[in-house]
User: Fold this.
Amino acid sequence: CKGWFINGSIVSRLPNNVNVSMPSPLTGEAMIYMLSTSKICISAGSACNSHSQSVSHVLKNIHMSEDEAMRTIRITLPDDVTTADIDKFKSEIEKAVKILSMDASA
Assistant:
């Protein structure tokens, strides 16, 4: 998708974990809230910084600005993830993006 990109190495990573940056005006915190209403749990930033309000040192080390870091989400898939789970996630994230983008333009 335009404006979305995977953070970190494409090769050296956990197979069930991805950290992505979203385009403005989307933020990690807003996306966490929107998806939680559908019982989908994601995180903002990096796993190393999951209990902190400050920008992750991991994201800083890959030369991400504070603004960019605030627009990141971390998605970790369980071992028993199904195609239906992936389809639900895709549908719910698309809805959240539409809603959050409309809110920003209002």
Remarks:
- The first strand starts at residue 5 and ends at 6.
- The mean pLDDT is 84.
- Residues 42 and 93 are 11 Å apart (CA to CA).
